Amino acid sequence: MIRHAAAILLVVTIPAAAAPAVPPGRYALAAQTVMPHLEAMRNSVDHRERCIADGALERLFPVLEHPALRGCTLAYPKPEARGTRYVLSCASARVASGDLLLVDEGRALIGDLAVKMGGKNMTFTQHVRAERRGACDAAVAP
User: Fold this and answer.
1) Separation of CA 24 from chain center
2) How far is residue 33's CA from residue 114's CA, in Å, rounded to a whole number?
3) What are the extents of the domains in the chain?
4) For a tag site, which of 6, 84, 111, 138 has the least CB within 10 Å?
């Protein structure tokens, strides 16, 4: 009986493979970056299409392509009532810190990435709406 209990315990403790953070496909992105005291940026929305083949959540946020944030990733997913929260993880805490709340609304992913640049009193938020438009094709770069 002890062997059976150990086998059951082993099965219970093996985590299921996690689904990719972003289902593969072609996404239409609308990204708005908001910085305190810069009212003009509130009306600026960047529109682009992006193919996501590898589930990389970072590809939904254009600001993470900036050289100052290169190498930062969104890690440590934690489910919450409204969605999933991720930690902005950079090679050095002196680069930046922050978090993301990602909400899956079915056909669209809504994300609010809050960032504090390390060593500076500079904060900003990037709000992204990513609507899945189907499979990737040659017209949209990965």
Assistant:
1) 14
2) 10
3) 20-134
4) 138
| pTM: predicted TM-score of the whole model, two decimal places | 0.78
Q: Using CA atoms, how far apart are residues 41 and 135, in angstroms rounded to an integer?
A: 32
- Residues 63, 113: contact at Cβ < 8 Å? yes
3-class SS of residue 79: strand
Q: Please, which residues have CB within 8 angstroms of residue 142's CB and are 6 or more apart in sequence?
A: 51, 52, 53, 136
Query: What gap in Å lies between CA 81 and CA 20, rounded to an integer?
Result: 19
CA distance 69 to 88: 10
**10-residue mean pLDDT series, the chain (142 residues):** 45 40 90 80 82 89 91 94 95 88 93 89 92 82 57
The amino acid that residue 1 corresponds to is M
Give the closest residue to 59 by CA, choosing from 89, 19, 24, 94: 24
